[in-house]
Amino acid sequence: MKLLHTSDWHLGQILHQHEREAEHARFLAWLLDTLQAEQIDALLVAGDVFDNTNPSAASQAMLYRFLAQARQRVPHLNIVITAGNHDSPGRLQAPSPLLAEFGAHVVGTVGNPGDASPDLARLVVPLRNRAGDVAAWCMAVPFLRPADVPRVEVADSIGSDSKAEDAYAAGTHALYARVYAHAASLRQP
Question: What gap in Å lies between CA 80 and CA 78, rounded to an integer?
Fold first, then answer.
């Protein structure tokens, strides 16, 4: 499988009072051409799709137009999008049932709303080859906010800030271990 990994599109960004919509449009056009020319099997977008948590309608339309065009030009393309620290996890994930129709798997949060445990089945995404067979598994973990990681008790350290950082790191490690174990359990020879 050929994978193309991107991140930090920051659609909707305004830099020093200058709209960057034309630059973003050129980037997405280049990306479409590259996906097709290089015969990419999976596009991975690792966060910061939008520049802020409340993206403009134009920015959202740009993303959705890109996804539709990508599906038209590369019908077998797997697309995995995870939220970054600039994205609103819920807003990015909200249209995921519709985006699945374009072959896009979107992960904004690690769990379902109101559920403290991670949804491992949603975080481990099958990547299918052109024959439709699962050829790889993608661990689609979004940017982790403190509320996303499991609580792990750590020994007292010098300061409370350090203890909080250690607990966050331990929780992050624990979450990735669970996601990896789930992915490994799905793997076939």
Answer: 7
Tell me the C-alpha distance between 87 and 93, whole Å. 10
| Torsion of Cα atoms, 59 then 65 then 69 then 75, to 10° | 100
Q: Which residue stretches of the chain have pLDDT < 70?
A: 112-116, 154-165
Cα-Cα end-to-end distance for the chain: 16
The one-letter code for the residue type at 68 is: A
Instruction: Count other Cβ atoms within 10 Å, centred on residue 138.
Output: 19
Angle made by CA atoms 89, 92, 96, in degrees to the nearest 5: 120
For the entire predicted model, the pTM comes to 0.88
Structure tokens at 135: 């050829």
Q: Where are the alpha helices (DSSP H) in 9-129?
A: 21-37, 57-73, 89-93, 96-99, 120-123
